[in-house]
Amino acid sequence: MKKTLLLTPGPTQIPADLCAALGRPIIHHRTPQFQQVLKEVQQGLQYVLGTQSDVYLLACSGTGTMEAAVCNLVSPGDKVITVEGGKFGERWTELCQVYGGDIRVVKVTWGKAAQAKQIKDLLDKEPDIKAVFVTLNETSTAVSTNIQAIAEVTRKTDAVLVVDAISGLGAMELKMDEWGADVVASASHKGFMLPPGLGFVAVNEKAFKLVERCASPRYYFDFRKSKKALAQTDTPFTPAIGIIIALAESLKKFREAGLDKMLAEYARLAQATRAAGQALGMEAFPDAECCSSALSALRVPAGVDGEKLVKIMRDTYGVTMAGGQDELKGKVVRIAHMGAIDEFDLLAGIGCLEKVLKQLGHKFAMGAGVKAAQEVLNA
Ligand SMILES: *Cc1c(COP(=O)(O)O)cnc(C)c1O
Question: Does the predicted TM-score (pTM) go above 0.85?
Answer without folding.
Answer: yes
